[in-house]
Specification:
single chain; alpha/beta; two-stranded antiparallel ribbon; globular; six-stranded mixed beta sheet; 3 helices; 144 residues
Length: 144
């Protein structure tokens, strides 16, 4: 992907990164991953992200549970932080719990906008991006 596409007014457009990641992921990997684990999804996403922020920004991975059930990626780009939570779809309750956890994490960083990237392997999934208002936060939720 062309790096400059994702940078607008010296700011990282994380929503566009997620949109393009969904597109590339589905083009390349759809129906080709027999046993998918969260670790692999994180690696694919980080491989996609790294050339975009390389040289100007960085990221680090914050594992929130011992069994790696959920992970947050914190991107630091020109002093602005973006939190992306990665999940595997395990039902609506698990997803709702993730929204609460992301909101709590955003409180910790004093942020009002966060991102959730969900890998869903159901046949009838809804792929794409949706905006969710959660309490006083804007959550950008991407599903592949």
């Amino acid at each position: 992907a062309e790096k400059s596409l994702f940078i607008q007014n010296h700011r990282l457009n994380v929503e566009l990164i997620l949109e393009k990641f969904i597109q590339y992921f589905n083009d390349i990997y759809e129906n080709k991953l027999p046993k998918f684990v969260e670790e692999v999804g994180r690696q694919y996403f980080l491989l996609f992200l790294k050339p975009i922020i390389n040289g100007t920004g960085n990221y680090y991975i914050e594992a929130r549970t011992r069994n790696q059930q959920r992970t947050d990626i914190v991107i630091d780009y020109l002093g602005e932080q973006h939190i992306i939570e990665l999940k595997i779809w395990r039902g609506q309750q698990y997803h709702s719990d993730g929204e609460k956890q992301l909101s709590d994490y955003l409180d910790y960083y004093h942020l009002k906008k966060g991102y959730m990237l969900t890998f869903n392997f159901n046949q009838k999934k809804e792929r794409g991006i949706r905006h969710v208002t959660y309490k006083d936060k804007e959550l950008i939720e991407a599903t592949v």
